[in-house]
Amino acid sequence: MTRTLVFAQQKGGAGKTTLLVQTAAALAAAGRPPSLVDLDPQRSLTRWNELRGADALPIESASEWQASTALRRAAKAGEIVLADCPGNADVLLRAAVRAADLVAIPCQPSPMDAWATQPILEMAAREKTPAVVILNRVPPRGGAGPAVEAALAEFGAEILPVTLGNRVAFSTAFLEGRAASEISPRSTAAREALALAEALLARLA
Ligand SMILES: Nc1ncnc2c1ncn2[C@@H]1O[C@H](COP(=O)(O)OP(=O)(O)OP(=O)(O)O)[C@@H](O)[C@H]1O
Ligand SMILES: [Mg+2]
C-alpha cells in the first residue's frame, strides 16, 4: 500500500524541502526509493533531484490545479510518496493535505514558527489527515523552549520524538543534490536524518 507524506508549513524557511530530501535519501539508501512530488513553484526539490544525476528519484512537479492528479500519479508509481509544498498556498495545501496519509510540519524553535503551525494543523484536522510537528534547528541545550512547547500544546500538536539540530551538512549537501548521509555518513546530521526517516516511517505505518 502506498503511503503519501506531505511536508507543509505556511512559514517559509522552516525546513520543508531540507527535511524532505534528507528523508528521501535515507529511504533510497534503505532500498525503498520514494517518488517525489514538487508542488512548490520555486522548484527547489526538482533542482536538488536534477543535481543527483544517475541517482535522481522519480519526480512529478505540478502547479495548483494539477496537484491532486500529480499526487495520485506518484502514488501509483511508488511505495512511498514525499511531496513538498510551498508556504502560503491555500487551495494547493488543501489538495495536498487531503491526499496525504501524514502531514509533516517542520517547525523551528521560535514562537512565530509555532504559531504558523496552527492553520495547517487545523486544515489537517478538517481533512482527517494525521499531522506531526518536526522540531528543526533545535539548540543542543534547552530544547524548543517553553513558549514554543506551550503554543504547540495549545494547538494539540503531536510532536515527532526525533528533533534535528542546526547542521551545516544539511545545507552543503543540498547544494550538491545530496543528503548529509551521503556526503558525511558519520556526522550527527546523518544520524539525525536517519532517525527522522525511521520515525516518519513508523508514524506512517
Ligand atoms: N536543520 C537545519 N540545519 C541547518 N540549516 C537548515 C536546517 N533546516 C533548514 N536549514 C536551512 O534553512 C533554509 C530554509 O530551509 P528550507 O528551504 O528547507 O525551508 P522551506 O520550509 O522548504 O522553505 P520555503 O517555504 O521557502 O520552501 C535553507 O537554507 C536550509 O539549508
Ligand atoms: Mg521549500
Coarse morphology: globular
Note poorly predicted spans: none
| CATH-defined fold name | Rossmann fold
Helix proportion of residues, in percent? 40-55%
State the CATH class. Answer: Alpha Beta
Q: Name the CATH superfamily classification.
A: P-loop containing nucleotide triphosphate hydrolases
What's the number of domains? Answer: 1
Query: How would a textbook summarize the main sheet?
Result: 6 strands, parallel
Rg calculated over all Cα atoms: 16 Å
Mean pLDDT: 94
Work out the helix count.
Answer: 9
Strand order in the sheet with the most strands: 3-2-4-1-5-6
What layout of secondary structure does this protein have?
Blueprint: E1 3-7, H1 16-29, E2 35-38, H2 44-51, E3 59-61, H3 67-77, E4 80-84, H4 90-99, E5 102-107, H5 111-127, E6 131-135, H6 146-154, H7 168-175, H8 180-183, H9 188-204
Parallel strand pairs: 1-4, 1-5, 2-3, 2-4, 5-6
The chain binds adenosine-5'-triphosphate and magnesium ion.
